[in-house]
Amino acid sequence: MRTFVTGGTGFVGSHLVEALLARGDEVVCLVRDPKKAARLFSDRQPDTVLGDLTNERALREGCDGAEVVFHLAGVTAARDRAEFFEINAAGTRRVLEAAGAAAPALQRFVYISSLSAAGPTSHGHLLIESAPPQPISDYGASKLAAEDATREGGLPWNVVRPPAVYGPRDTEMARAFKLARWGLAPVFGDGSQELSLIHVSDLVAALLAVMDSAPADTTYFAAHPEIVAQRELQRAIHGAVLQARGAKAGGLHRPLVVPLPGFVARGALHVTGATARLLGRTHRRRARGDRAVVPPTPVAMNAVDKLLAAYLAFVTVMAVARGGLDEPTTWWILLAHALFGLLLYLFTRLEPEHRVGQVIHDLYPLLLLPALYTEIGLVNEVFGIDRVFANDALVQRWEATLFGGQVSYTWIRASPSVFWSGLLHLAYVSYYPIVYLGPILLVFRGRRESARRVLLAVMIAYVVCYVVFIAFPVAGPNWVFDHPTGPVRDVWSARMVYALLAGGSSVGAAFPSSHVAATTAAVIALWWEWRTLFAIFVIPATLMTIATVYCQMHYAIDATLGLLIGGGSAGLARRITP
Question: Are 349 and 281 in contact (CB under 8 A)?
Fold first, then answer.
């Protein structure tokens, strides 16, 4: 059976393609990134047609001689309603037109829609296919419009509406597992919301059954027969995480269920404005030994506070714009930013003589860095992994123009050295002590102003890089290229670095290199503030910069821009706080 699959490199589509190939069908996939298809289908490759839903020539080429068309391509996140309809609805019409023109022997056009096209149902009542659709989101409305186009396209059709799909290669449900590793189980309201789910292998089996034996011109829901409450689902996920961890799970046996009432989301919309109001607040202190009230005194934020407040306001806007309030990740980001606003407010209430609190105020940005970095991956996953990899192609063209090729790919392969691989991979992790130890040691030596200047330089570098990561996400060579093999990859320091990246790397955080930018900013700032520490760190920092490219962590252009950003950040910090 000759089949044409759109969306064949996506989560569900890739599993469908594998199943079709395994049973001997001839498969043609519409792809935007042939390299991604080659990585996904290593055992047996489908034929590929380069293009997207706007490319009518590619669609006709893919449909040529097809007996079955599976149309999965579309978007679940868009900038606005118009983009949803342009891709999901108009794109479906173009596939139908191509199939009608190029596939005279077509037996079935199978459109994979969504439960969102039908809309929600009331508690305790199951939806049936004949119920009038009532989508409540722009995404659902666009999928319903695509269904209508399928029914009116003049071809033998089936529509399949899956609910939430989970399984290998999933990124949406994976977020719940990531939270479960921290013992958190967020639920909406009291967690009694009823959900339908389906494993990707079951959905693929359903699609194959539709292809082989379902009558034409019919619509189906495809879901596991068991309905599960959201609270129970979160507990099941938590239990699976504990089981996978085994002895490492420690004493954490039950998740912390976090109810999210509706007013939390609505209130989070006002986080930015509320934070701005809090940042300008004054406070009253009572004099010790009497009840006299000291006149209100403004408590000024330092430069890092203002920088981070502005950055998180930017991330808030981007998260809402990309995910909308229907996206759970957006809610978590808004809640986290509201807590940051509260933290800033508490800092403005600190007494000058509260030494521990003042030290925390000086160093808290270092504690926030892991969360800020993780947040980038969450925002970019909402943006869409395929779009991230599309940006890599553009950066690779810049790389080839400036450096004559893909330096990060060819260097370690053209000059393999176990010694240099071991040393440079070790130097790569020197980034952490360089960035963290300078401010911390300065604070504990009583040089708080120097620590603030170093930390401001580092945080300017991070913020510049992080803004680019979110506005123009690039995955980088560690994600795009195959990893090096052989002795240079097997040295212990290389294995350590790859283990660290596997457990804590955020997609889209490659261009420019924040490692290089922050390290450069820290070392230059230490030249002005503490020459001894500068002398200790300058050689590891130099090796770390080389390592980002040699060890295939960043493009050469990433490291180059990182050096420029780091130097500029150190200079700007010195001008702001001379």
Answer: no
Q: In degrees to the nearest 10, what's the CA dihedral of 127, 131, 135, 136? A: -70
Query: What's this model's pTM, rounded to 2 decimal places?
Result: 0.52
Furthest CA-CA distance within the chain: 94
For residue 345, the SS3 value is: helix
Q: CA of 569: how far to CAs of 191, 465, 513, in Å?
A: 46, 11, 14
Sequence length of the chain is: 578
Q: Is the pLDDT of residue 370 over 60?
A: yes
Report pLDDT digits (tens) over 239-257. Answer: 777 777 664 444 445 666 6
How far apart (Å, rounded) are the C-alpha atoms in residues 566 and 434? 13
Half-sphere exposure of 533 (CA within 13 A, CB side): 24
Q: Which residues contact 102 (CB under 8 A, 6 or more apart)?
A: 60, 61, 63, 64, 65, 66
Q: What is the DSSP string of 351-388?
A: -TT-HHHHHHHHHHHHHHHHHHHHHHHHHHHHH-HHHH
Say how far apart CA 173 and CA 177 lie, in whole Å.
7
How far, in Å, are 11, 103, 284, 329 from residue 241 at the CA level?
A: 21, 47, 48, 20
SS3 261: coil
Q: 363: number of CA atoms within 13 Å, CB side?
A: 19
Strand order in the sheet with 68-71: 47-50, 26-31, 2-6, 68-71, 108-112, 157-161, 218-221
CB 220, CB 129: distance < 8 Å? yes
The DSSP 8-state label assigned to residue 26 in this structure reads E
